[in-house]
Every structure is written in structure tokens, then in C-alpha cells.
Amino acid sequence: MSTESDITPNAADRHHPLLKLALELGPLLIFFFANLRGPWLVEKFPALSELGGPLFVATGLFMAATILSLVVSKIVLGHLPIMPFVSGIVVVIFGSLSIWLQNETFIKMKPTIVNALFGVALLGGLAFGRSLLGYVFNAAFQLDAEGWRKLTIRWGIFFLFLAVLNEVVWRNFSDDTWVAFKVWGTMPITIIFTLAQMPLVLKHSLNPETDGEK
Predict the structure, then answer these.
(1) Of 1, 139, 162, 11, whose CA–CA distance to 70 is shortest?
(2) Of 171, 195, 166, 198, which is closest to residue 183 (Cα–Cα)?
(3) Where does the pLDDT of residue 143 fall: very low under 50, low under 70, confident under 90, or very high at 90 and above?
(4) CB 162: neighbour CB atoms within 10 A?
(5) Percent of the chain surpassing pLDDT 90
(6) SS3 letters for the chain?
(7) Which residue has the higher pLDDT, 207 or 46?
(8) Are 41 and 58 in contact (CB under 8 A)?
(9) pLDDT tens-place string over residues 147-184
(10) Which residues contact 75 (CB under 8 A, 6 or more apart)?
(11) Crossing angle, helix 175-184 and helix 145-172, to 10 degrees?
(12) Are the C-beta atoms of 77 and 12 separated by less than 8 Å?
């Protein structure tokens, strides 16, 4: 089983961009809908009542949708994107614990664990002189060493920020607010942050053709 960068532009990714987006967003949308319409789903599918309340029903469907998205990604796109793959493993582990123990804390802490893991991995890699972010983004653009270092620091700090933010939201707000934030808050924040890095990317980008002529 092979895993690749989320943005590795292989032939399948280029031919199925909407499918790739659907595979990444689909499980989150199902999680949001299932939490919102939990009682209706249980009424239509009584077997779901075995999972527990609305958030546990949403968690069960979220796990199923996540596994399905990874399977489809492997079959259609030919690889498993590394970040969704790691996130999927944590979803299954923490989701299963939440349902088994009927404790919402596990699934609520999943984003904290995943983001903290990525943040520590990126910043820890720099401590050993390795920019792990380069392995994720090097298919999209080429940067000089200083560019990778700065971008890795920024992404590492950003992941840690998301981890702290998730803790603040789930510990201080209602389940519905946390679910809405997880779906409609985290994604826009990440998109804005990504766009904000473009000046740095452009400043430190390497031009292979130009470099080869020098």
C-alpha cells in the first residue's frame, strides 16, 4: 500500500480533480448532516440507534465515509494521500473508542491529536535538519532551502494553532457548534492561511530551466 502527497499531480489527480475534492470533503459533510439530522436518520434506519445519540451516529457514519473515501482514492486515483490517510487512522481509532465507551471526548479530540501530530512532526523534523514539508509539496513547486525552512515553520505553527483552537471550541461550546466549526470553520481558515503563503512561495521558488542555464 503506497501513500503519496495530497497534491502530487499524477495523471489520475489531474483527470479527477472534483472527485479528489469530494473524497476529502465528503466525510466531513456526512458528519455534519448526520449530527444535524440524527433523530431523522435513526427513525429511517432504526439500526443506527445502537450507536447512541446523534453525535455517535454521526461518528459512525463519518468513520464509514472516511474508510470508503480512502478505498475509492486507492482504486481510482491509485494512491492514498498521506494526510487523509493518517487522519483516517485516527478517525477510526478515536471514533471506535467514542462509540464503544459512549464518550464523545475521543472523537472531539481527534482533530487535536492529528493537528498536533503534524505540527510536532514538521517542527521536530527541522530540529534534525530535515524539512518534511518538502516531501508533501515538492511535486507542486520547488523552493530553495530557506523557503522550505520558513514554510515548514509556518505550517508547523499553524497545525499547532488548529490543535489549540479545536480544544477551545469543543471544551467551551455545544456539540452542534463544534461540529459546525469542524466542517465550516477549519476549512476556510486553512484556505486563507494557504493563500497567505503564496508571497513566500513565489519569493523562494526555483526555476529549473533558469537554474540549469546558470
Answers:
(1) 1
(2) 166
(3) confident
(4) 22
(5) 32
(6) CCEECCCCCCHHHHHCHHHHHHHHHHHHHHHHHHHHCHHHHHHHCHHHHHHCCHHHHHHHHHHHHHHHHHHHHHHHHCCEEHHHHHHHHHHHHHHHHHHHHCCCHHHHHHHHHHHHHHHHHHHHHHHCCCCCHHHHHCCCCCECHHHHHHHHHHHHHHHHHHHHHHHHHHHHCCHHHHHHHHHHCHHHHHHHHHHHCHHHHHHHECCHHHHHHC
(7) 46
(8) no
(9) 888 999 999 999 999 999 999 999 999 999 999 998 88
(10) none
(11) 160
(12) yes
- pLDDT per position as a tens digit, 47-77: 888 888 888 999 999 999 999 999 988 888 7
- Give yes or no for residue 92 having a pLDDT over 80: yes
Q: Are strands 80-81 and 3-4 parallel, antiparallel or unpaired?
A: parallel
Cα separation of 136 and 134, whole Å? Answer: 5
Stated length of the chain: 214
Residue 78 corresponds to which cell in the numbers above? 491509485
Please give the C-alpha separations between residue 34 and each of 57, 62, 132, 169, 172, in angstroms, as whole numbers. Answer: 7, 8, 36, 20, 22
Phi, psi for residue 80 in degrees, rounded to 5: -110, 115
Q: How many CB atoms lie within 10 A of CB 198?
A: 9
Q: Which three cell numbers stand for residue 114?
A: 492529528
CB neighbour class for 210 (10 Å; exposed up to 12, middle 13-18, buried from 19)? exposed
What pTM was estimated for this model as a whole?
0.74
Backbone angles phi, psi at 81, to 5 degrees: -55, 130
